[in-house]
Write a structure and sequence with these properties.
Distance between the termini of chain A: 44 Å
Oligomer: homodimer
Structural class of chain A: alpha/beta
CATH superfamily of the largest domain in chain A: Response regulator
Helix content of chain A: 40-55%
Radius of gyration of chain A: 26 Å
Shape of chain A: elongated
CATH class of the largest domain in chain A: Alpha Beta
Largest interface: A-B, 71 and 74 residues
Order of helices and strands of chain A: HHHHEHEHEHEEHEHEEHEHEHEHHE
Number of helices of chain A: 14
Largest sheet of chain A: 7 strands, mixed
CATH architecture of the largest domain in chain A: 3-Layer(aba) Sandwich
Strand content of chain A: 15-25%
Chain lengths: 359, 359
DNA sequence: CTGAAAGCGCTTACAG
DNA sequence: CTGAAAGCGCTTACAG
């Protein structure tokens, strides 16, 4: 059956590919009834349902979603809720979302982004409560895990709106899916790179964290400690210092930590401002450049990677995050299965040599 | 304009979104003429063309590709031509292709894979010559770069079939696009990891290559030498030994190299059978485990990563390769632009800690 | 509970 | 060179 050559029977494979019309004919019912069965709509006798299902099985029907959406004049409307920090990671994520917005009209999809103060659980919950099932077909949310948010998500699901958590999981809510990386593994990856790059040196490691409550931060730190404790016992990770979401504050706390530990051989930035850390390193005038491992590839971290200040960045592709969220949300709407392997977000390791050439 | 709340004007944003009918009305022509202009079909006076274009601009029309394909009853038919080696990388690539085949019917796409003996340029060229533009809408090809293949590609393009090169580029042909990584950068990445993991040790590095002619091999070795020469002068990469595409032969040549250089501190596997290399390491009974950097993540290399025999794998995601080839081919058919950032295949670094959990 | 007919946004013969 | 009409595979009021 080589349809690609001139000699073979032209368009041989085109035969069949059954449509709703074929089902209607075989089942001996009308198009409308086929549609009702196909879409689980009420008001069909079970005998009739069975007849239709038999025809479907017999013909091996697969529905043409594009045609269905066209007829339905369906546009998917998704809302992305993000925290309102100003950091470059979020900017990058927004760019990823902007890209899907650009290609969205092609797919009959509208996407809106809402930024909500991350510390204000009440406002966040209120925003979610405002979402109208008649207007919104799905929600992607990046937020700290709090009881209020958990309940708001449950409520949305009850109203029939699919929800995916983004970047930071809401494992105790009944969100449909988590789009993001395994942060424990990400921390282990950071620990291993730091351990290997240290090449047998003994010493302390300064750990800078955004805040100690955020789930992804906790998981990363945990993974880091696991692997360092097990494989690099000559390294001594210090208690985390908190940089908040503020470069200047991050610089201050990091500088203080470096001054208290001038023999530190490395710094693990669990999610803090890498700019602040770089400035602290410069200000500390250490005898030897410390190894620096950071999370999330941004313009800043890329520049510092190029400059040789940062040694490696553990990251996740924001474009993938956005597209994956979109695909999963669409799948949930269509009630089609998600392809697991495609939605598995990878933990990327970036060093100077494999920096992506373009943004 | 918050359409997501109950309070706002329902479906406010739905207004407009102009269609061909609107264009026809505004331009004062028929649907058929609009269609002709939209698709650059011949037989329209330039005055008319202008009228239509003005209407398009005025209305801000964007075409609905899904509806167009439905009407056109268009199914894309793409052929993937791959070498007939038995290796796991190709198996993985085929799995990536299989995945797009599964989801293909949804997108009115048919994909066929042809395996051609890689050494047989003549048969390869003959296979390409057999491709009928009436039957095939696009070609993705992974093959060594030879004049015969180059000409065959040019010929296909002349017959109007878009061509993308896959994994190994055909830079001197006029293929539409290359789907794959920058292999010089991949080699630099391997060199840097080996250099850093060596942690200041002096010593020789055994380099095992599939064959010395293949373009990707040459580029990787080149990048490796660049970075080691510049940044790790205490390392001494040895001349490449050729493993062919054969594990047993790879084992023999690697073992010989290790016996001749028992003080080698590392091995760079540029694209050879990592199984063969692992067996050679075991057989050589070295005083100290050498650092081993390999390319392409497969079941074998993943197992060796877990076992601590391989230290890092430089790889490219075969799922991305397949999907990217598909998207680019479809874009070429539709004459729509490719989104560069989305089609940029990343150089992935995999260590034990960030191994993907599932295949 | 079921069906006939119109329509989604586009394309395609067929006339003229 | 241009247009009227039918059709792609599905869904949606509207009748009955």
């Amino acid at each position: 059956m080589k349809w690609w050559t001139k000699l073979s029977n032209p368009r041989l494979t085109d035969v069949a590919k059954p449509t709703v019309n074929d089902i209607a004919r075989v089942a001996g019912v009308s198009l409308a009834t086929v549609d009702r069965v196909l879409n689980d709509r009420p008001g069909v006798r079970s005998v009739t349902i069975n007849k239709v299902h038999e025809a479907i099985d017999k013909l091996g029907y697969v529905r043409d979603t594009a045609a269905a959406n066209l007829a339905r004049q369906k546009t998917y409307r998704f809302v992305f809720v993000l925290p309102d920090w100003k950091g470059q990671f979020l900017a990058s994520l927004e760019r990823g979302i902007a890209e899907i917005i650009v290609s969205a009209p092609q797919n009959r999809t509208e996407v809106r982004t809402i930024r909500v103060p991350n510390h204000d659980h009440t406002q966040l919950a209120a925003t979610l409560a405002e979402l109208d099932p008649a207007q919104v077909d799905g929600l992607a949310i990046m937020a700290k895990e709090t009881p209020l948010v958990r309940d708001a998500i449950a409520d949305l699901r009850k109203r029939g709106i699919p929800v995916v958590s983004l970047v930071s999981d809401q494992p105790n809510s009944d969100r449909d899916h988590f789009v993001g990386i395994d942060n424990v593994a990400a921390g282990r990856t950071a620990g291993t790179l730091l351990g290997r790059f240290a090449g047998g040196q003994k010493g302390k490691v300064v750990v800078v964290i955004t805040n100690k409550q955020s789930r992804d931060m906790i998981e990363r730190r945990h993974g880091f400690d696991q692997v360092v404790g097990a494989n690099y016992p000559h390294l001594e990770p210090l208690p985390s210092v908190e940089g908040q979401e503020d470069p200047a504050h991050t610089e201050r706390v990091t500088l203080r930590a470096l001054q208290q530990n001038p023999d530190a051989i490395g710094i693990y930035s669990v999610g803090a401002s890498v700019q602040g850390i770089a400035r602290a390193i410069a200000a500390a005038r250490l005898p030897k450049r410390p190894i620096l491992i950071d999370h999330e590839l941004t313009e800043n971290s890329a520049a510092l990677l190029r400059a040789g200040v940062v040694d490696a960045v553990i990251t996740q592709n924001t474009g993938h995050l956005a597209r994956s969220a979109l695909r999963v949300l669409r799948a949930k709407c269509d009630k089609t299965p998600v392809i697991k392997s495609q939605e598995n977000i990878r933990i990327d390791i970036v060093i100077r040599e494999n920096l992506p050439s373009m943004k």
